[in-house]
Amino acid sequence: MSAGIALEPPLTRSKRGRSDVLGFGLLLVIVFLAVVGPLFTSLDPNTADPTSALLPPSGEHWLGTNSYGGDVFTRLVAAARLDLFIGSTSVAIAFVIATPIGAIVGYSRRWWAGAVMRVMDFIQAFPVFIVAMALVAVRGPSTFNVIFVIALLNVPIFVRLVRSEVLALRERPFIEAARSVGNSDVGLVLHHVLPNSLGSSIAQASINIGWALLLTAGLSFVGAGIRPPTAEWGTMIAEGAPNMITGQWWISLFPGLALGLAVLGFALAGDSLRAMLDVRSRTV
Amino acid sequence: MKRGRLEFVGKRVAQLVPQLLAISAATFLLIRMLPGDPARALLGPHATEEGVTSLRAFMGLDKPILEQYWLYLGRVVHGDLGHSWFTSQPVTTDLLQRAPATLELITYSMAVALVFGIAIGAVAATRRRGSALTGGIAWYTRLAGAFPDFWIGLLAVFVFFYKLHLAPPPLGRLGFAVSPPRKITGFLTIDSLVTGNLEALTDALAHLALPVLVLGLIIAPMIARVTTTAMADVLRSDHLRYARAAGLKSSTINRYLIRNALPPVITIGGTMFVYLLGGAVLIEKVFSWGGVGQYAVQAVGNADFAAIQGFVLLSATVTVLVYLLVDLLHMAVDPRVRQ
Amino acid sequence: MSSEVLLSIEDLEIRFPTSQGEVAVVTDVSLEIRAGEFFGLIGETGAGKSMTAWAAMGLVQPPGRITKGQVRFAGRDLLTADRESLRRIRGNELAVIVQNARAALNPMLPIGTQIAYAYRAHHSVGKDESMQRAVDALRSVRIPDPETRAGTYPHELSGGMAQRALIALAMVNRPRLLIADEPTTGLDVTIQAEILDLMAELVAAQGSSIWIITHDLGVIANHTERAAVMFAGQIVESGTTRDLFTEPRHPYTRELIESVTRERPRNERGAEPPDLANRPLGCQFAYRCDLVEEGCRQAMPALDVIAPAHLLRCPVVSREISPDEAVTGT
Questions:
Q1: Interface pTM, i.e. ipTM
Q2: How far is B74 from chain C (nearest CA, A)?
Q3: pTM of the predicted model, to two decimals?
């Protein structure tokens, strides 16, 4: 679970090809699993069947069963749906809210632009996980609150990103020219400045969805997020935690594996997107 | 140049005041976000009517919000962070009792991360660009950042405790049969060393091993990456080239290398330390560590809002202080910072 | 004037890999610098002057490499010497100053400390004594209040001050040869003369030699006794400074001198820089030379001796000067 630091190292051309494939490939698998997965199982992710508790992976239960007989595979797939939903929704909301703020703050030269950035700095300065945990605890553990909190924590990231893009574009000659011809500032921002900044926002969004997944799982793990027995990767890991001491490794292993691969996929895809979209936006 | 240094320190420390005020305001508002009566929520499930009434009066809940904040600030400044209904103790006491455990965990994790991270980062810096080691570190970073740390902790428990019987069970800092050393610092390793309690020392180290290695090795690659970049920049720099042209001894050149590559490493060290505060919460749960992290998790589970509020205030304050320390270290090391 | 040869470079070739293959950036370069001599190397940017100088110190920046030639300093072969021997010579008997003095200094240490380190690198003395030497060095370059100034950091210095500090560092060990690579380019015009005069004074006082590398003809004219002109990585003419300026022989030298003395702008004829990646077969200057003949493009012209201590790489002009004598190559 990462702090808000860019992880991706620059890759050479040939290595880029491989990581592109890997990133988008992983994403495809995860999404496929989430969407199509339920078709592979006839079980309800929330069933409890104590007679089949703690069974290792087998032909009947591909990934084994947990302490109350729930089929890990079924739950894994259901969790994928929930987690992807939470991750993408929260990041999308943050993106939608933050982009106009970032654009305004970047374009405007008024004093309050600085004040807004100070607030953003403030939000970003704290241990993300602790703030999220406290907020969800206070508001109550529910999917909505998790989305709300993650969106809130993502807003400063996008504000900062859009702002820096807008700042850079603000000084470009073609913006000066357009303005001198009489185009309104708002129109300029909407039609010229924002579209050019979208590239890096999309790439960042991919990476942030990965972080949102980790944050969601972490919150669930400590009981400040999605509550069991809802199938979510974090709650599944929490459910299987006591069993690691008694040897039933599959209950926690598979959800964690799925989570990690999903995050990796989003991170690599984000890196690829950044490389692809960056080049294009530079030629403008 | 002493004047410049003093001014910088003064300015930077003065910034603490608004920062701490902002933090206290945020934690104050946190409780106000609770649905219903904050006083009732703070007293927990065993709240009595008289208790609620008197707490309401104490907190000034009928007064205007600014006055409430002022009262809260006054209490915080005097060390009163409220009362945990679950432990029946003041939150401040709870935190002070558990802080050393977390601090010990984080300190050792940080040490492991720094030693390992700087070592492989420095080696990677001496290799050509795009070498196998640099690529390996990049993948290490990606994987360490993608998989949840608590899950890695659980896997470590499975492999090293359950399968290999190398690590003790993840049930706290010390085995049941071992008597803890006399408390001096609260760090089991230091206290047992100082009091000559070898049994406690080895047992404490054995219990520390897994969580420290898990946390440390997860953040190490980030430190490695920064070290590599920083050192590579210095190795390519004009001034290092000139130092060679001036025939400086290799010991001097190495000293230059370290000194000049230090600032970014200090920054990442601070960032990672703050990250560890959050990571500790999760790892403490996995290993039943008994530190403030586990306390926070229990508080969340128990709807012990005073404890949650106190914990957030503590972490936020520590964060602010860490960043201050980072800035001061920068000032000490890099003369360009003092302007 | 015959005195001992301090630095001799013979047939130096330096190659550099580029996207178009390995390019020879310096080729067939030979020169000699004598003890106590003020020598100049002239050429435009990219002519290979700096590379030649750094190669002479054994410090070619990889991936560039020396593919041919010899460098001897005070009789020692620098290209085959071991690391420790080279280290002992650099900064000690052979020192260098560069264009961007602030960049050459360590931003994290005070200048006095850096000079002290440079002194201790070649003398086993204690900290105090080396600091004293550093202060003395700063005083010798006329930095006011040297004891206090020794504690300043490079970023606190102006360009001129930084260059003085660098000169102090380079000269603290009393080198026998000081290489000055564009020492005043980028400095305020008013300061340039001061710095150059200071350098010349210090070097002369020690009886050392100086090798000034620059594209600024004024500097060469005022501070060197002998000079060589480089074009496209080769030496095209060398001789006494007076001869080069009063009677430039090589068409390129003429172009340079005339652009300064007659105030004719250099690029009037659209002078393109040479393409080092696609070197023509014969003379490298032929493509923009007005004296060009058939034979120029067919074979690489050699350096002829057209007068004592005057070399010229242009058969056309050589023939004009001494039409009866057979042209001999050097």
A1: 0.91
A2: 44
A3: 0.87
